[in-house]
Amino acid sequence: MKPYLKWTAISVGSVVAIAHIGVLGHLVRREPSIQVPTINIPRGTPYSSYKIEAGKDGYTIEYRANDPKILESQRSLDLTKSQSGFFGGKKYEDRNEYRTDQYTMEGVRNIGGASLPGEGKSAKDVECIVADAGARSQGAMAGSAVATGVLVPAVVNIPYIGWLAAGWAALLGQNIGSEAGSQVNSMISDC
């Protein structure tokens, strides 16, 4: 082999080997690029709360406006009083009072109901609601019984889906009976 070809091959081989080692070193030391997500947090009321959880698989955000929705106040009174009268009469008083109130953000005290003053159900409305619930229940039972006796035997023999169609028929009868019971009740009860 000629000497200049030998030195050319060694030179080219050396350059390729050094470049290869350099590229491998660069790839091994390269840090993975981490993309930090941009989170646009909604701006709500001053009482908003956020809960952000981030991990390898992603992140979740829980946002609650008007948090806390219910404010609470607690008061207590412990009174022990003893008094002797001028003529020997003794008065003794021992009182323990505890009061917990809940307020909305507007400062309205919760008195156990979910309606504002002037709103709500009258006795007639409550009676109609109770009667409607009973009528719907009775109608649903009757409709289910009729559908089971009439429709189910007709559809149960359908190949492959007969068992499913029988269930649908029973549910259809139950829904129709419930609506019919409600309508009959509204005509009878004048609701």
Quick overview of this protein structure:
The chain is of the alpha+beta class and about 190 residues long.
List its traits.
single chain, 191 residues, alpha+beta, two-stranded antiparallel sheet, 4 strands, flat
Task: Give structural notes.
- This protein is an alpha+beta fold and 191 residues long.
- Among the domains are: 73-103, no CATH class; 123-189.
- 46% of the residues lie in helices and 22% in strands.
- The protein is built from three helices and four strands.
- It has helices at 3-29, 123-155, 162-189, and strands at residues 49-55, 58-64, 71-84, 90-103.
- A two-stranded antiparallel ribbon has the order 1-2. The chain has a two-stranded antiparallel sheet with strand order 3-4.
- A hairpin with a 2-residue loop joins strand 1 (49-55) and strand 2.
- Helix 2 runs antiparallel to helix 3.
- It is flat.
- It starts with a helix and ends with a helix.
- The relative contact order is 0.07.
